Structures are given as structure tokens and as C-alpha cells.
Amino acid sequence: MPASAHPRRTSAYKPAVAWFAVLGSAWVFVLVALGAFTTSIGAGMAFPDWPLSNGSVNPHGWLTEIDKFAEHSHRLSAGVMSAVTIILTIWLWRTEARAWLRKLALCAVVLVLVQAVVGGLRVLLEHQHIAMVDTSVGRLFAMLHACLAQLFACALIAIAVALTRGWIERPRPVSRAVRRAGMICCVLLFCQLAIAAIMRHSFAGLAIPTFPASSPDGSLLPPAWDFRVAIHFAHRCMAAVLTVALVGFACKIWFDRAASLAMRCAASLLVSLLAFQILLGAWIIWSHRSVAMTTGHVLVGAATLATTFWLTWVAHRDVIENAPAAP
Length: 327
Prior knowledge:
It contains ten helices and two strands, in the order H-H-H-E-E-H-H-H-H-H-H-H. It is mainly alpha-helical. It has a two-stranded antiparallel sheet with strand order 1-2.
């Protein structure tokens, strides 16, 4: 029996599953915030074991010691996220007629499970050191863990958006230029987030301790170079590139007659997030890596990606829905 003929499957708007997907997408940001806070206070190794914490699901001291609270809360929230993703996928496979959306949900399950394993390897392999790059195997997995989190967030956002009434019943095709600009911005943002993950887990957040100049004498380039300085400087350069790209993307949306009011508002939000993100990045340097500023910087970066991806995904609505089904 073809998927569209399944008695329980429909491509119509389904409020219950749509709102469940929205809540799942929102929970991603709780997970990102807790992960950012854990890394910012250096609590990633508060427990040397995994998946349990000191051999327990309720380890002693996790409600009273900040490092244990941060790491264990992150693990518990990840467990909730895994359960939500699995439930959402089962729900979609029982009720959703669009095969590509069911497959996307299955990919989200794979991503969240891989993310959990990568997070565990970050802990279990922390003691193995790689002299050539002066880091541990665990920290390499921590970098991958940070990148996969953003990819997983985009997958859930894509599912949630595809379940909304606006996507299903009120499509508004935009120009190819908007779609192209959105894709470019998403690629650049993923590159920037990867650079940021390497920088954070290489302890290079203050490798260049001045801003906006790269040296106390006001020079644009750092006076001395090593890996940490280079990755930090790359993060600043990519921020400049992104500023131009994201503002250009927002302008294309504002001037596209087919863009909806929601897209125009999101484009304005994107520019605001960009400005706030630059300010937070500056305050990280000026405050000598304040925990609040660092955590906020990671969270706003995730929100910037989410907004950009949402706009790009919505812009591709007709392309996605009208694509020929795989044999």
C-alpha cells in the first residue's frame, strides 16, 4: 500500500504533532544553553563515567555543586531530547503521508543517538592525549559534539516548520536569489560554528586578548602566531564575512515581494541577533571570558543559525514539496 493510501496517514495540518515538534525544537535550545554553560565553567569532566554519573542517575552533590549540576543537567536534558525525538518520529511514521518528512524524522533520531554517543566518548576518551596537536581525544569529540548539536537543531526545526499550517496551506514562493543567499549563509554559519567549537575546546577564547584590534598597539594582525591565535583570528574574520552575508540575505528578503510578513520580521530579527552576537563576542574579550557572556554568545549563535535556517527552509518550500519522490 503506498504511503499516501495508508488509512492513518495524511499530509494535512495536524495541530497536536505540529505543536509537539515545536516544543521539541524549543527544548534543543535548553540543551544548547546547558552545554554552553557546562563548557564555559569547565565542567565537562565533572563525572569521569558515562552514561551514568559517578555510577548513578542521581549522583551525590549534583544539586549542590555547580559543576556537577551543569554536567548532570546537560545529560538529563539530552535524555529528554532523545525521548522527544523518538516519540515525534514514531508519531510521524504513523500519521504523516509525506515520505520525505518521515525520513527526515528518522535522520533526526540517528543524529540524536550519534550525538549522545559522541558526548559519551568525549568523557571516556579524555585521558588519551594526542601530542601532535596538544589536545585529548575527548576534546576532539567535544568539538564534533558541538557541531552535531547545531545540525540536529536544524533537523528538528525543519520538521517543525514542515508541520505548520503556513507551510501546508499557504505557500508563498520567493525568488531563487533569496534561496541562494540563504544557502550561502547557512554554510558560512556552520563553518563559523565549527571554528568556534575548535576555538572553545582548544582554550583559545582569549588567545587574542584585545578587541577590536588584535594587539595592544591597535594593529589589525596579531603580533605573534600559533595555532590558538590563528583559530581565534579565523573566528573574527569569519564573523566579518558573516556580517556582510547575513545583512545581504536580510535585504534580499525585505525587497522580495513574495516574502511573507513572518519572513520579513525574521529577517529583522536576524540582523538584531547578529548585532547582539558581535557585542557579546566583544564583551567576552573585555570581561576576560565571563561565563555569562560566553554562554550567551553560544546561545545567540545557535539562535542566529536557527533563524537563518528557518528562513532558508521556508524559502525552499516549493522546491522541497514539489521534488520528485525517490523510487
